[in-house]
Every structure is written in structure tokens, then in C-alpha cells.
Batch of 2 targets.
Target 1
Amino acid sequence: MELKFSEHAYVPFVSVENMIRLVKSIGPEKFMSELGDAIEADFKRWELFDKTPRVASHSDVGVIELMPTSDGEMYGFKYVNGHPKNTAEGLQTVTAFGLLADVYTGYPKLLTAMTLLTALRTAAMSALVGRYLAPKGSRTMAMIGNGAQSEFQCLAFKAICGIENVRLYDIDPEATEKCARNLEEAGLSVARCKTAEESMENAEIITTCTADKQHATILTDNMIGDGVHINAIGGDCPGKTEVAEAVLRRSDIFVEYPPQTRIEGDIQQLPEDYPVTELWQVMLGQSKGRTHDRQITLFDSVGFAVEDFSALKYVLEKIQGTDFYDNLDMLADPSDPRNLYGMLS
Ligand code: NAD
């Protein structure tokens, strides 16, 4: 008997190479702008989503996580790791891939590399939040931690918030030099700084994006003046923070999904019932964002599944009608659904 294989068996797969082609064809800044809009639209439908803190498997050297969510029509998840020691071994700290499926059939609709996409979506989310919380007319950002995520952060703030100047600091001057070169090419005015304090001079926005598996104190109380917006990216798993408790207590804190951020974010240093504001409510106008000039706002970013869901949907939409994907023979789908065994004969 000849078995026919249905076209449903093929799943579009976006490889790293095709992701690069896709991002280049759109342009990284436009990509992050559009992705920021997609994330905002999904955050405005927040209550529709199944939400759970990510499922994390910790080891002494890092973490491996699954991040699932669904809006009832589509289901998505991302596999992502975080291994701060990896760069010293010539490897990425963060790598990821993800899948989007149709809730009605359960069939996958997209499988994609997500390492680049994670950097793009993290930056798009940061800058989207910056648009709500940063002082109006912000033009200068301090960028502390000049590793893999850093250029994406700076360019998203350029595209979405109008940042023109970035002030870079990293404990490793080579990382700063790499970041500076990439950003100068992209048209930002760049200052290479020797200390974290120097990087904050005249900065309305302070982004911390360091990787160290410990309670690091990148921002101490005396460094932070009134009125700034802090975009804290690197404190994103238990035992890994960047901002001193005193800074948190002086700030109004904004989070993605409190049950996850209380475990993973900088607010793990605060009592469990410490007041925080959920960003979806700010986006819907149900909670206040920045209310006065002296207010310190702080986005305690940990990265939430809905952002990856938005990114997966955005990629699926953008690859339509292109050759930026391969068809992956991923599902056993015999013409007689009950004759799975027949596929072996
Ligand atoms: P990376 O290892 O490529 O870069 C981190 C940089 O931080 C390195 O250049 C390192 O020298 C620097 N650094 C370490 N300690 C420092 C200090 N005390 N002062 C200044 N610089 C310091 O890592 P990456 O891929 O850029 O990721 C950075 C962080 O962001 C990681 O902790 C990662 O887990 C986190 N992250 C968060 C999200 C999110 O959604 N919140 C998403 C992706 C990554």
C-alpha cells in the first residue's frame, strides 16, 4: 500500500541563516519597532492569555527554561538557556528556539531559531516600556554591560524612543569597544566610559544588561539621581540581581508578570507583597506610569512568554510569501490517521 503524506506534515522552519536574512530584509530597527507594536497589542489583550511563570531547571552554572503561553487560538513556547560562564568558553550566554502551534489541531505552524529573536524581542520590549515610562524627550542612555544584548537594546531605544547618544560601560573594555563600533556604524553617538558612574552622566535612561550568576550590585543608591528611568535586564533568575535594594525602594517598579518576576527579577530582594505595577495595565491606561519629573521608574525585566509569543507570530507573518524558511518534515501524518504503524511498512 502506498501511503500519502499530507502537506500538513510540513512545518516552516526558520534557521539562524534565514532569520538573519529576514531581519536584514526588514532592517533591525524597523523589525524591533514593528515587534514592539506587536508586543504592545498582545499586552493589551493580556487577560486572554494562559500565563505561568517559566519552568526553570537550574544548575550551578546556569539555567534552562521553557516559556509557554496561549491566547486560545495559538500556542507558543520558547526553550532558552542562560549560562553567564559561556562567553569565557567562546559560547553564547543565551541561546533559544521556539515553536508556535494551532490550538484547534495542535499542529505546529512554525519552528524557529530564537537566539537573535530573543535579543530583538527583549530590546523591543525594553524600548516599548521606555516609551511609556522614560522622561519625555529622553535623548541619552547609559548602557552598562556591553555583551550580546547590548547593541539591540541601544538600537531599539533609538528606533522606538528617539535615543541619540549612548554611554557605554563594561568591566571588559573589549566588549565596550565591540559595542561602540557596531553602534557608531548604526548612526548613534557613542561615549566609551571607564566607570558605571561616568556612563550615567546626563543619561535620562539607565540600562543594565550584565551577566553574572550572583547578587551583583551594578547600581548602588548614590549613583541614581531623581527622575531617571532604569531598564534592568540582567537580573532575571533566582540568585542573580543587579540593582541595590535601596534603589528599588526609591523607585516605582514595573513588571511583566508578578508571579514570575518575584521569583526571578531584582524584586526577589523585596518582600513578596511589595507593591509593583503590571505593564499591561499601564498600556491599557488602567494604572499610572510616569507621573512627575522627580519619579524614578524601574522596569524589572525578566522576559515573559507573551513577548516570545508575539515574536513568533510576527515571524510567521513576515515569512509568508518569502523563501526565508525551509519545510521541515516534522510530523508523522499518514493519510489514514489510524494507520500510523503503516508508515513503517
Ligand atoms: P553577555 O554575557 O553577552 O554580556 C554580559 C556583559 O556584562 C559582558 O560583556 C560582561 O563583561 C558584562 N559585565 C558583567 N559584570 C559586569 C559589571 N559588574 N559591570 C559591567 N559589566 C559587567 O550576556 P547577554 O546575552 O548580553 O545578556 C546579558 C544579561 O541579560 C544576562 O544576564 C541575561 O540573562 C539577561 N537577559 C535578560 C533578558 C530579559 O528578557 N530580561 C533577555 C535576554 C537576556
Target 2
Amino acid sequence: MNNKDLISIFDLEPVDIFKILTVSGELKKGKEKDSLPLKGKVVGMIFQKPSTRTRVSFEVGVYQLGGCAIFLNAQDLQLKRGESIKDTAKALSRYLDGIVIRAYAHEDVMELASYSTIPVINGLTDLLHPCQVISDVFTIMEKKNIDCSGQNISGFANIKVVYIGDGNNVANSWMNMASKLGMELVICVPEGYEPDNSILNQCVELKKETNTKISISHVPGEAVKNADVIYTDVWKSMGNKDGRKINKEDFQSFRVNSELLSGAGKDVIVMHCLPAHRGEEITDEVMDGSCSVVFDQAENRLHVQKAIMEILFK
Ligand code: CP
Ligand code: NVA
């Protein structure tokens, strides 16, 4: 991979994404039991926001690869008392072999990466959640039997992903990913909750190369027609330091329920990055139903992040 860091899917070329997916598949089969690629390495995990899956899967992943993870609650670092990101990056680079960071402001993560001499992985910002969507693509490959061994994006050409909910960090990263892999992506949001416009414009430029179809819809019943994947996320994300107001009333017809599901493709799978607010963006019936792959999806965070760390931190 040309980039030292993984801050955005835009840091990756399709060949890099395929490499991560291939290594993830090998790790899922237990490859690291023969070699410990992070032996002797120490990874710092800076978290400004809560996390269950990202924190635990990264920490467990580091240990399984033979390294050691140090959890750094942002409240306990001198950052909290005003030390600059630049000085923090320079100091931590003298001790650690890699950093995973979950932050509010995306710019803070970019600044940390720019002053660190070690690789930095974005574990979610207000703007993006790249590790989530790489792992989601791995889940889609498994569930839809897509073969990426030839490193060819054509396997994704017939996949239609419909994201329903708020145009948030996950939706933004999905646009990045779709533009790299050439899938059809419909972002279906209430009016006023569209994803980041500059990312959308960048994706429109990129999609000319990959033949991706990215569209914005405001009509869930229309959007899900022929969907292979219905994807949802919470209506109100953590943070939103930009002061964006979320009115849950605006989302009432954007709930993923059985009726909506019945209008999708016959082999549709339902995905959710979790945590879910059951009864809001997704009903119990769908989340626990036969189309739901949400816990396989959660498991795959571990395998995919191990692959990312093996490639970046080795
Ligand atoms: N999907 C995800 O990132 O979950 P956590 O917030 O629990 O890490
Ligand atoms: N959009 C959600 C994702 C959580 C994993 C949030 O930012 O809170």
C-alpha cells in the first residue's frame, strides 16, 4: 500500500482493498497461528467516543497477531489539558508501532497522521468509518459468493447496496467504497439528511472510471427494489460536533421493517454496523430474521482489522 495510514477509503486503490480482503480471508481460516506478524509491536488505541466492536476487535486482533495494545482514553491524555495533536503525535511515535484513533473531528485524525512517523488507522470520525465498510465488503463477498482472487472489481458490478437512514459517517464511507469497487449504491435519506456533498462530488468524479452508480433517494420503497443488500445505521450518531440537528420524526418512513424488506430482491441481506436502536431504524423482526447478517458482519470486523494491521503495522 502506498499510504502509511488508513484514514479514508480514498487512501486505498482497488488492489489495496483486494489485498486486505484476501488476507482477511486467510486470517479468518487461522493463518496467523503459524506466524505472529505483530510480535513485539505495540499499538496505541486513542478513543474519544464510546466503542464496543471497534475497540474490542482491534485489541483482540493485536493480541492474536502477537502484539500488545494499549487503550488510551482521550480523557486521560495530556491532549485533554491542551497538549497539541502535533506534539502528541511526535511523542507517541517514539514509543508505539501504530495508532488506532476514534475521534470527533476528522481533521484531528488527519493532523495526528501527518505528524506521526508511524501508521495511523481511523477507527471512526464524525465524517468517515473506513474500517467498517472494508469489513462490510468482506461480509458481502462471503454472503454473495464474490471471488476477488483475480483482483477484479467486476464481481461487484451486479451488486446493489441500498443504505437507508442518515447521511452520516458510514454513508460517506459507503460512497467512497462504491466508487472504488464499481457497485450500485443508493443512499436513501430523508430530505435534509443527505451525505457529505464534497465526498459525493469526489465519488462522482471517480465513478466515471469504475462505472459505479451512486444515487440519492428519498423514497425507501422505490430505493430497495432489486436490492442485494439493505444497510442501515442509527438515525442519531455519536458526536455530531457540527451541531447538526436530527429530528427522529423525519425518519419514521425510513425504518427497515418486514414490509420494506418484502419490496427488495429475493436474496437480499440486511446489514447494520451496530449498535442498533431496535425499533427505530430496524425492527426486531428484521434484525433477528433470516435475512439479517449483522452478527457475522460484527465478527468480520476482527478478521478484516487484523488484515489491515498486518499490512500496515508489520
Ligand atoms: N460498528 C462500530 O464501530 O461499533 P462500535 O461503535 O461498537 O465500535
Ligand atoms: N454512525 C454511527 C456509527 C457507529 C458505529 C455513529 O457515528 O455513531
